[in-house]
Design goal:
Structural class of chain A: mainly alpha
Mean pLDDT of chain A: 95
Shape of chain A: elongated
Largest interface: A-B, 34 and 34 residues
Number of helices of chain A: 9
Oligomer: homodimer
Helix content of chain A: over 70%
Low-confidence stretches of chain A: none
Largest sheet of chain A: none
Order of helices and strands of chain A: HHHHHHHHH
Strand content of chain A: under 5%
Amino acid sequence: MGRWQPDARARLQEAALALYGERGYEETTVAEIAERAGLTKRTFFRYFADKREVLFWGSELLQQQMVAAIEAAPATASALALIGAALDAAAERFEKVREFARPRHRIIASSPELTERELIKAASLAAAMARALRARGFDDTAAVLAAHTGVTVMHVAFVRWVDDPDQTPFQQIARDALAQLREIACAG
Amino acid sequence: MGRWQPDARARLQEAALALYGERGYEETTVAEIAERAGLTKRTFFRYFADKREVLFWGSELLQQQMVAAIEAAPATASALALIGAALDAAAERFEKVREFARPRHRIIASSPELTERELIKAASLAAAMARALRARGFDDTAAVLAAHTGVTVMHVAFVRWVDDPDQTPFQQIARDALAQLREIACAG
DNA sequence: ATAAGTGATGTCACCTGGTGTCATCACGAT
DNA sequence: ATCGTGATGACACCAGGTGACATCACTTAT
């Protein structure tokens, strides 16, 4: 083994998740996270842009998979069908990280600063989905509306899923929510 | 005139808007804003919780008016009709501040930090609208979906409105967007 | 085998956002 | 004239974040 332990990034993530959970986000210091990981504050900021980002590393993966699902759907698909395909992709990803999703979500929900960061990630996801929809011929307004709507449905479903005692699959919860949205928009 | 010039808050807001516009948000220091307003850094933080909040003071007014519009609508109104009423209220408010809306929006869009703050304000608005919808008998999921959808439509319309060379009324742009959303959700 | 180079880390100094605490001063009330 | 009150200033301090440079293990060329 060399001078440096491997997986510095993963160690920092684990340390941060643990400390944020134990003592709260605001009460945790970057220096403490780094120390717990056997590193220094300066090194923390070489791996993560700021104190919040350590909880969001890897969130581009979800974005990539949802965009890919939109691109891969049959050419005849409606906007709502494309959103459904993206949500199925999200379901696949979420089920894979179920174990971490709950504590992470609890931490984020407990801090306005972290909630802000999550919201801008969601906005970035929506923008990426809108690009994919535009690329499939939808006009700008329709693409943006559909993309944001999809992200909203995802978020609503996520909150229900992460605290669901029955462990209902995300896919089912999301599909129900999407159907409910359709009712709202088409009724009256 | 006494020791203190009046309207310290307004002076701080003006100074901040001017400096953020001239030199950029990140490049502007709270001490500089305070100095331009004839005050000190400490006093700035007595009026505003942080460097971002100075651009968002008064945003509860929009929320109050949109919620009030939902509460005041006829009892038979559908969820979509209630969103429409809320958007009309937003239109009224936006037209009143048209002059400031553009430079302020430019500044916010230029800084991720400020965008984050705007997003959490939007989320708070959506939560308030969802409460109002629940109070009118909608179940939780429907209320949250409708409220977020309304905020999305508002935002899409706002971005078009603020840069529209024809100065089309916000109300019209928002109504068009809402109709387009309906098409998306009900088609296919 | 030794020297040079490379990449990850540590060290240190520094700026700025943000807060707690106490002093100060103008004003109104007594 | 005195006293209280509320807004402000002054000052010290902490933590997030960054730039610059030193350090050390490991690799590669000679």
